[in-house]
Description:
By secondary structure, this protein is an alpha+beta fold. Helices cover 47% and strands 15% of the residues. It has six helices and five strands; from the N terminus they run H-H-H-H-E-H-E-E-H-E-E. The radius of gyration is 66 Å and the shape is rod-shaped.
Amino acid sequence: MTLLLCVACSKDPSPDTDSASANAPEAGAPTTPRTTGLVKNPIKLSDTADAVKWMDMASTKSPAQIAKEEKLAKDAADAKLAAETKKVHDDKLAADAKLAADAKIAADAKLAADAKALAAAKALEKQKIAAAVQSPPAAPPKAAPVVAQEPILNVITGEQPKFPSRAVRDGVTKGIVTAQLHVETDGRVSKVEIVNATPKKYFDKAVISAALQWKYAPISKPLTTTMEFEFKMAGDGS
């Protein structure tokens, strides 16, 4: 019996030996280092939602270094935001200034145009007034003085009547006046009487004023002669 037990014991390998053999790596196989279970600065990813922050915290950086970097990052972000805000503000100020300058230029241009138009209107009005006041040149009578009776009168000087400004203002462009001239022996016209005028009261004074300046050659006795004066405004084709 003793011999049998010894043989049996010698055939069965030791459990520890078999376990060690099973766990031993094969020859030539790469070896994997075993973890010791000790992790430096153990932090769970679930503790922070920022992966970069988690990686920084999981590194060898100290809390003071991490806080300093976070402050620098925050300051940089604030500075960038402030710069962008200032740029937007400056751009708005520049746009407002340009808009105001454009509006001023347009207003100045409108004022200048209005002033120019007003000056032109005033100049035109002055020209119209001057044209109305100035009498147009009178057309000379078409008919020669008609001698009503003998002896024949010889005209030495005879001023033609001027076209009245009143007729111009009222739109009268032509007319005919028949007048009697009383001539003295020395050839002087002493009296002028209007016999007929068409239209009336427009050309009478002009005829009287002009006829009184007429001068005839001396005659033997006073005579009365009838004259017809025709008026036509210059430029009237009728």
